[in-house]
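quick one
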Amino acid sequence: MRITVFTIFPELIEAACAPSILGAAIERGLLDVRAVDPRQYTEDRHRKVDDIPFGGGAGMVMMAQPIATALDTALASEESRPRIVFLTPGGVPFHQDLARDLAREDAIFLVAGRYKGVDDRVVRAYATDEISIGDYVLSGGELPALVVIDAVMRLLPGALGDFASAEDDSIHSGLLEVPQYTRPREFRGATVPEVLLSGHHENIRRWRRRQALARTLARRPELLARAELTAEDRKLLREIEADLDAGRETEASGGTASE
Ligand code: SAM
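structure w/ S-adenosylmethionine:
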């Protein structure tokens, strides 16, 4: 997959794409991330990419021309028209389903705004998608672009050493992920739930499913409405609800060494 980010701060994208799993995926050729600076395409002799807003008001607006020319130049080397995503707080909330959808593309363009945002005429002319990463305002679209890149990269076959770990991730499976523990068995007096040390695979599977359901019910109940639940899940949920009614703990907290 090829991802091209249009940004006046290409170094932000390049720096974040070097290390870790993302860097390894790029190194292995699963993903190619390129940053294009619209400033390189401005027709203004002072290399300006922003101007004052029509109608007045504080702040500057990113001019249409440098972004449009940068997009046209990049489009000329694409065989088919890629998805062109503008990152904006006014866009569709980013979600795992959208990440899955984007992961099926051969090429994606991500346009990162700055200042008060991008001249709307360029958005109308090119955008196939407008995406928000949440209800807060950042100074630029580079971090949102990196959020999209990272979420999409995790879904590319072979990107994670163990692809099953993406399948188990919170949200991806429809439920929040279960609490995880690693060695040592005891840390500052806190122990690991006994069942995880039992080696009994069926009990562990059932415990994990129950934990995922209990955690999702407690923290993100709206996800349950969309999740694909089996008959066993529904039975576990009834047990969890009965525990809650009786004031019993439903989420794992491990134990203490003295217990
Ligand atoms: N005035 C704009 C508004 O209220 O919609 C915000 C502009 S913001 C300071 C500058 C740029 O940061 C935006 O053009 C967008 O690319 C990016 N940005 C900021 N917050 C974002 C968010 N929550 N999701 C996606 N992009 C965001």
